[in-house]
């Protein structure tokens, strides 16, 4: 059990520096070539894995490479392409609405502000922060299941609501590294600090983690 105060600048710095050493090249694990592809892929990633999304998007983008093309799709076409991801009807509807909004409101260009992104159909703060941080270089905290779980285990927040957790983490994590630090936390959550059986014995953070055991 750590004697360092959870959420203190010392503990936060130690954890983030060790993650930086462990995952120096951490990045978004969704495959994309431009902001539009990242936006679509992130919307599709809800309730599924990045690996599965990456298996679906090549055919999707080959057929509908931009917002104009996607807005001209039929729901049946989209449903067939995203069917392997689960919740395919809802996701197809979200993509169609998203494409229409991009074309009609933004001239078929993905906006680069949080306010404009979250106004798009199917886009919440998590998706918006993924796009802002990775496509536009605007720092953002992405509270997915891994970031939420690990930061609660470390004592950085007690919030289970992603938006409330994001607000608290903004006061804990250094802003200039929000995007890359979230990637590293996600990597660690996927590889070591699992939901049901965290590998505390193999974790480089065990001595500074109040939940290790």
UniProtKB/TrEMBL annotation:
It catalyses: 2'-deoxyribonucleotide-(2'-deoxyribose 5'-phosphate)-2'-deoxyribonucleotide-DNA = a 3'-end 2'-deoxyribonucleotide-(2,3-dehydro-2,3-deoxyribose 5'-phosphate)-DNA + a 5'-end 5'-phospho-2'-deoxyribonucleoside-DNA + H(+). The gene is nth. Pfam families: EndIII_4Fe-2S, HHH, HhH-GPD. GO terms for biological process: base-excision repair, AP site formation. Its cofactor is [4Fe-4S] cluster. InterPro entries: DNA_glycosylase (IPR011257), Endonuclease-III-like_CS2 (IPR004036), Endonuclease3_FeS-loop_motif (IPR003651), HhH-GPD_domain (IPR003265), HhH_base_excis_C (IPR023170), HhH_motif (IPR000445), Nth (IPR005759). Keywords: 4Fe-4S, DNA damage, DNA repair, DNA-binding, Endonuclease, Glycosidase, Hydrolase, Iron, Iron-sulfur, Lyase, Metal-binding, Nuclease. This is Endonuclease III. Belongs to the Nth/MutY family. It comes from Trueperella pecoris. Binds 1 [4Fe-4S] cluster. Residues 44-191 form the HhH-GPD domain.
């Amino acid at each position: 059990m750590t004697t360092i105060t959870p959420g203190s600048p010392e503990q936060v710095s130690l954890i983030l520096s060790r993650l930086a050493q462990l995952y120096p090249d951490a990045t978004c694990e969704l495959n994309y070539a431009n902001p539009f592809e990242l936006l679509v892929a992130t919307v599709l990633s809800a309730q599924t894995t990045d690996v599965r999304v990456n298996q679906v998007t090549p055919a999707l983008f080959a057929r509908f490479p931009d917002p104009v093309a996607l807005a001209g799709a039929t729901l049946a076409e989209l449903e067939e392409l995203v069917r392997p991801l689960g919740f395919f009807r809802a996701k197809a509807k979200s993509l169609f609405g998203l494409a229409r909004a991009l074309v009609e409101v933004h001239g078929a260009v993905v906006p680069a502000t949080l306010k404009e992104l979250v106004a798009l159909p199917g886009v919440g703060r998590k998706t918006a922060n993924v796009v802002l941080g990775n496509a536009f270089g605007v720092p953002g905290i992405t509270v997915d299941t891994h970031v939420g779980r690990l930061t609660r285990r470390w004592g950085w927040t007690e919030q289970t609501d992603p938006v409330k957790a994001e607000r608290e983490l903004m006061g804990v994590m250094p802003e200039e590294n929000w995007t890359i630090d979230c990637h590293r936390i996600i990597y660690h959550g996927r590889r070591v600090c699992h939901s049901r059986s965290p590998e505390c014995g193999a974790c480089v953070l065990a001595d500074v983690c109040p939940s290790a055991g």
